[in-house]
Amino acid sequence: MTTTRNLLAEQSARFARLDPVIPAQRVAPVGEPVVAALPDGRVVGGVVAFHHHPPGTVSSLWSARYCRELTPLLGSVGAEGLAELLAAARPVLVDGLAAEPDSAVEVIWPSRDAEATRVLLDHGFVPLSVLAIRTTAAPSRPAPVDDRVRVRRGGPSDLTEVLDLAMAELEYSALVGGTVLRPDARDLKAETLRTRLAGDHPVWLAEVDGLVIGLAEGAWSPVAEGSPGSTRLPTGLLGYVNCVSVASGARGLGVGQLLMARAHEEFDTAGARATYLYYNPPNPLSSVFWPRQGYRPLWTIWESRPATGLRHGP
Ligand SMILES: CC(C)(COP(=O)(O)OP(=O)(O)OC[C@H]1O[C@@H](n2cnc3c(N)ncnc32)[C@H](O)[C@@H]1OP(=O)(O)O)[C@@H](O)C(=O)NCCC(=O)NCCS
Questions:
Q1: Which end of the chain has fewer CB atoms surrounding its CB within 10 Å, N or C?
Q2: Tens digits of per-residue pLDDT, 266-289?
Q3: Which domain holds residue 159?
Q4: Which of ligand 1's atoms lies nearest the C-alpha of 283?
């Protein structure tokens, strides 16, 4: 008999073969269950979680308002079962969203599963973001940057400059990824950054003659065994890089690289096992920049926006 536990264990073993950095899958996803049978009788499953990101929530800045997240449990069947699962899950995934343009269906899946990539593309999904990881303390090459550029930690008095740079990143990312420029974006960002700048998480600023031209917003991210985060990332102390933004007139001059050299130095010195971040593959700047800084895709966040963009496969 096929059980969720079996599917999870077999899926975990398959993920490990695809990518040794993907952690063991020990936490069963929570949501509405879906089951599908292949013509040869094999059975796959999945669960659908419903997420709402109303006005006033920070997550609404990178999410559609109404999201249905499908977590497939394909066991050892793998991508072969994904098309059947998508067909079986479709009524749940699009139910009630036919007239909702601000909606999405999401699947978060190991980036290296090329066979699943084919199925997801064929069903109208777009790889809007990747969760990328840097696992080795690759030495940062010295940045060929103007030697007047200084990097320092930011604090509460830097809010105005930090907010402008964060908004510039948000506006750029809204052109090339899943970010949504909501009417309350500036207020939401201001509130988050005010807290961030007054707290213990690091914010690095690059400046020239006292003028702030670059921002890297970091965070300490301890991932505990058995926590939801442990299904995606290695456990232990990790460094998280949230927003990196260089003023448009100063891009391509090594400022971003200098900021990340400092961030990595601090994360590595503190014993972070890895550092991770999200970026948008369609972003022509960050998709070049991050691999140069030692990051590679681990999980891809596939989305069909709006939800009704979900297609029947070939
Ligand atoms: C992404 C960003 C932070 C990079 O900062 P930057 O100061 O421009 O980057 P650097 O000059 O340090 O460049 C570092 C590397 O990225 C690559 N790169 C940067 N800008 C590039 C460009 N316009 N075209 C091609 N490659 C580029 C270079 O290959 C460079 O590596 P190299 O010097 O070893 O060749 C900056 O471009 C930016 O703010 N972009 C808009 C907001 C954004 O996309 N933020 C990231 C969201 S995840």
A1: N
A2: 999 999 999 999 999 999 999 999
A3: 149-293
A4: 44
